[in-house]
Amino acid sequence: MPNKHFCQGPTCHEQTTADRFLKSKGIIRGRYAYATMDRQPNSWGWTPNGSDVYFCSQRCKFDWLSTNMENIEQGRPIEFIRHRRETGGYEKTTEEHEGWQGRTYKTHSINRVDNRTEID
Ligand SMILES: [Zn+2]
């Protein structure tokens, strides 16, 4: 998808959602922005908001504002993210639970694996 920016959300690459998780490497990857750079209308004819060219979600927009408004006020430059950011050290954990009438069901979660005790 070369026609999209990477999401500028400060913690986009640290949020443990299934679509960000790359199991083979055990990493969380930042998403692409929601909209293409040319903001083509979607299949319902709706044209994305201009900020959707830079962010994958409302959460990432708000995170960016919270992080950067003071920089804007003070005239400090803000880095534009041009590469796919990654956070390493995650694994997918599956737990089996007992449910209604003795049936079992599974839940999945993505957890950090680098919380082991360090040995000197
Ligand atoms: Zn994002």
| Separate helix tally | 1
Give the names of the bound compounds. zinc ion
Number of strands: 5
Overall shape: extended
- Provide the structure class: alpha+beta
Major sheet size, sense and barrel closure: 3 strands, antiparallel
Rg value: 19 Å
Walkthrough of the structure:
This protein has one helix spanning 58-74, and strands spanning 21-22, 27-29, 86-88, 90-98, 104-112. With 120 residues, the chain is α+β, with helices and mostly antiparallel strands. The chain has a three-stranded antiparallel sheet with strand order 1-2-3, with no helix packed on it. Strands 4-5 form a two-stranded antiparallel sheet. A hairpin with a 5-residue loop joins strand 4 and strand 5. The longest helix is centred in the middle third of the chain and has 17 residues, at 58-74. It is extended and about 60 Å long. The mean pLDDT is 91. The protein binds zinc ion. Zinc ion binds at residues 7, 9, 12, 31, 55-57, 60.
